[in-house]
Design brief:
The protein is α/β, with parallel strands linked by helices. The chain folds into 3 domains: 2-146, Rossmann fold, CATH 3.40.50.720; 148-261 and 280-302, no CATH class; 315-387, Orthogonal Bundle (Rna Polymerase Sigma Factor, Chain: A). The protein has 15 helices and 11 strands. Bound molecules: NADP nicotinamide-adenine-dinucleotide phosphate.
Length: 387
Amino acid sequence: MKNVVILGSTGSIGTSAIEVIKEFPHRFRILGLSAKTNLEKLKLQAETFKVPYLAIEKEEVAKALQSSLSYPAEVYVGDRGLAELAQLDEADIVLISVSGIKGLIPAYYALKSGKRVALANKECLVAAGDLLKNLIREHGGDILPVDSEHSALFQLLKCDERKFVKRIILTASGGPFLNWDIKNYDRITPEMALKHPTWQMGPRITIDSATLMNKGLEVIEAQQLFDFPLEAIEVIVHPQSIIHSLVELKDGSMLAHLSQPDMRLAISYALNYPERSTVNVKPLDLTELASLTFHKVDHERFPSITLAYEAARKGHPYPLILEASDEALVEAFLKGIISFREIPYFIEKIINEFKFTTKPEKDPENYLDFHRQVKDYTLNLIERKRA
Ligand SMILES: NC(=O)c1ccc[n+]([C@@H]2O[C@H](COP(=O)([O-])OP(=O)(O)OC[C@H]3O[C@@H](n4cnc5c(N)ncnc54)[C@H](OP(=O)(O)O)[C@@H]3O)[C@@H](O)[C@H]2O)c1
């Protein structure tokens, strides 16, 4: 029996992870769960599995949760809560499905405790990949990717020797505006951008998928996870989201990973690794697919990918600057403060203009401080432009 902690259990990935675990009651026990504000859903999850350790953002909500539970549980608060749950002695796997930079806190403490991390949160790897990889070297834990493209690559790269790999290719659905004329981009509203054609996800990643920044962040995530040079990491648009990634070999062969676009498959792979288990997902029937199509990325309409490559090329702390400015801008877009087109417009300005004297290192708090500074700078820039 493996003890699993799920951080961000009330979100899209967290909910799918619980569905997967329900299918294997003799293999997994839920040891810890966390949410930011969704008390009712967290309570329901906790009561269903009698989860002994919980965390939620605010002290008063934590007290309300503690007093309303029908069984004894330890309820932690805020960032400290995420850190405590990530390093519980009994935890075998820590699944990090918190959205945003806050995922860095549990990733840091879980890896510092030598744990296995099933990582959905790409933001922490983009922002602080070197910090986390040092912890793996020092403390012997590991990261199993949950992002579907990276789970696919993790599996594909086991098929042949690294020396035979020419490049890795991530696929992008292209989001809801794939076929839109750029002239119509000013009409894009948050409601339109929140309707993703193939995946059901939380708001940040859904908007990032519409701008294709999600794919840009995934390029940096792949660089951190698999140590390929940037020139060997490519993105192609594949609207059906059936092929999740490909590996091109030096002899001209290509290996592809295909599955239904359902995150339970990647979650189950990470939880069961190195075993595989049958999950309750409709098997892929190739004869039912009308076609699989592929296109080049249109960098003029989707400049976010170019910006992500540029940040990756410049190196630390530019991926962190990219991620933080994007987090602030997506929030501003969802509140109706800026337009869809302004997201990459501001990111480019911030990458070129944000000044810093020291780069964050060693301590996750330094990264979070730097992240806050970039977000503040971004909000000031928006204010100045609107004034
Ligand atoms: N969804 C997907 O298909 C998918 C695929 C690949 C990778 N990912 C990655 O997985 C992560 C989660 O994505 P998602 O779509 O599941 O997001 P989501 O639906 O928005 O869920 C986010 C979860 O994190 C919690 N949370 C948010 N901010 C927090 C904070 N500041 N402190 C503590 N907890 C916080 C939320 O709690 P509340 O519910 O209380 O707000 C919720 O449980 C992201 O990094 C995303 O890029 C997602």
